[in-house]
């Protein structure tokens, strides 16, 4: 695929260099420029609250929406699609005559975020703007392409905050929408936001295709260490090669690969009901594995994925986990009563993770260590009967190794060759230093 004309901006323009992915490989993009000072340029109204990083939307708006000029636009977004002064981008774009916004597409949990895990908002007209809202959840391929066609859009824009883990489904909403846009002959523009847990490293096992589901469509690592524009380029260049979408990406300004979310100065909006804080995202790539067990992963508490437990677990688990002296984290014996989900209204025992050094903390290794120690210290441990753990880890390898008595080093060692291969591919699609 050749670089689209709209993907190239004049030298010195407000947005700097914009990358476009091709079927043969990624275009080379220069590092995004430093964040603008308040008052610089037309988009200054969208850079408030002390933000150091300017999102893809902030830069798009600062450039007067030139990439969308003359086109009917639909936006795939949710409550995280906000400006730095916490206005929703749909409200901002709808009020701006420079862009013709005609549709909104809602993912899991919905455009306005009213649905719990495994739910969406359906088709309705948004009361605030009057815009039609279409449901993309659990739609892919031609059925989703038909939604884009019916909406009448020329260009689909994606702007959703990710959490950095393969099984966080918004990146597969991105993938499905890219595939569907290509089928429908629509252009696709991805607006970047920070990976909240940094973009330093890819960690964990790589999905095997026979285990593909909506919590993992394609072979990437469990913690991918990429932003959504980088993932979009990788998807187009590696997985959608038979019919790549016409893809443009708008990068951030001021973001560095080693930045945790609190370094950006941007406001945090929970991307889903059980991702309340950036600290949740920090542990999620490891502790979400407990969805594949009979233990609570902390849903229904104020600390989902930081609290883990079940009826019958005592202090032994926390002691066993602490004895491993895992880098950057300690485990507190904890008791809690979830208000919904597993063990609703019943008091359970388990652990709470306390990350004291996030630079050295490895969420995936920690998640494996907790599975190993939970199975060894609590006789009631069991996998979910549907082997959901295999979908989360991307193969049967983790489950069968732990069942065979493997320790943490043996389990994590089993994926190192596939991880090295993914890291080599990933490197070619990174846009930031």
Given as residue ranges, the uncertain stretches (5+ residues, pLDDT < 50) are 1-49
H/E element sequence: EEHEHEEEHEHEEEHEHEHEEHHHHH
| Number of helices, where a helix is a run of at least 4 consecutive DSSP H or I residues | 12
Distance between the termini: 26 Å
Largest sheet strand order: 5-6-4-3-7-8-11
- Envelope shape: globular
Portion of residues in helices? 25-40%
The biggest sheet amounts to: 7 strands, mixed
Write the SSE topology:
Layout: E1 21-22, E2 25-26, H1 56-62, E3 72-77, H2 89-94, E4 100-106, E5 124-125, E6 132-135, H3 141-151, E7 155-159, H4 170-184, E8 187-191, E9 203-206, E10 221-223, H5 228-239, E11 246-250, H6 278-287, E12 307-310, H7 316-323, E13 329-336, E14 348-355, H8 363-377, H9 388-393, H10 397-403, H11 408-413, H12 416-427
Parallel strand pairs: 3-4, 3-7, 4-6, 7-8, 8-11
Antiparallel strand pairs: 1-2, 5-6, 9-10, 12-14, 13-14
Helix pairs in contact: 3-4, 4-5, 6-8, 7-8
């Amino acid at each position: 695929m050749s670089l689209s004309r709209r993907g190239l901006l004049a030298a010195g323009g407000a947005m700097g260099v914009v990358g476009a992915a091709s079927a043969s490989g990624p275009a080379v993009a220069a590092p995004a420029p430093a964040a603008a000072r308040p008052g610089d340029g037309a988009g200054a109204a969208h850079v408030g609250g002390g933000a150091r990083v300017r999102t893809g939307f902030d830069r798009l708006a600062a450039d007067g929406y030139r990439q969308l000029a003359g086109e009917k636009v639909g936006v795939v977004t949710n409550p995280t699609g906000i400006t730095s002064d916490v206005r929703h981008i749909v409200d901002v774009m709808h009020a701006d005559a420079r862009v013709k916004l005609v549709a909104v597409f809602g993912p899991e949990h919905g455009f306005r975020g009213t649905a719990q895990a495994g739910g969406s908002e359906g088709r309705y007209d948004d009361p605030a703007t009057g815009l039609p809202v279409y449901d993309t959840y659990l739609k892919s391929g031609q059925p989703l392409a038909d939604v884009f066609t019916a909406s009448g859009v020329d260009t689909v824009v994606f702007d959703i905050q990710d959490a950095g883990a393969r099984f966080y489904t918004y990146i597969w909403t991105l993938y499905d929408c890219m595939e569907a846009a290509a089928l429908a002959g629509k252009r696709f523009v991805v607006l970047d936001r920070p990976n909240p847990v940094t973009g330093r490293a890819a960690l964990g096992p790589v999905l095997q295709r026979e285990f593909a589901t909506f919590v993992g469509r394609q072979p990437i690592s469990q913690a991918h260490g990429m932003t959504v524009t980088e993932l979009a380029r990788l998807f187009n260049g590696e997985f959608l090669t038979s019919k790549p979408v016409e893809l443009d990406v708008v990068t951030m300004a001021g973001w560095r690969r080693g930045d945790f979310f609190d370094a950006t100065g941007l406001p945090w909006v929970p991307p889903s009901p059980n991702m309340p804080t950036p600290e949740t995202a920090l542990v999620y790539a490891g502790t979400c594995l407990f969805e594949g067990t009979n233990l609570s992963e902390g849903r229904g508490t104020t600390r989902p994925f930081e609290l883990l437990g079940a009826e019958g677990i005592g202090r032994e688990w926390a002691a066993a986990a602490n004895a491993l002296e895992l880098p950057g984290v300690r485990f507190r014996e904890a008791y809690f009563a979830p208000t919904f989900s597993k063990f609703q209204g019943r008091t359970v025992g388990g652990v709470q993770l306390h990350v004291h050094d996030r630079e050295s903390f490895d969420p995936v290794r920690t998640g494996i260590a907790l599975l190993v120690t939970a199975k060894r210290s609590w006789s009631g441990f069991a996998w979910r009967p549907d082997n959901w753990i295999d979908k989360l880890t991307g193969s049967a390898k983790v489950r069968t190794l732990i069942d065979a008595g493997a320790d943490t080093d043996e389990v994590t060692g089993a994926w190192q060759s596939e991880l090295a291969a993914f890291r080599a591919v990933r490197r070619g699609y990174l846009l930031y230093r």
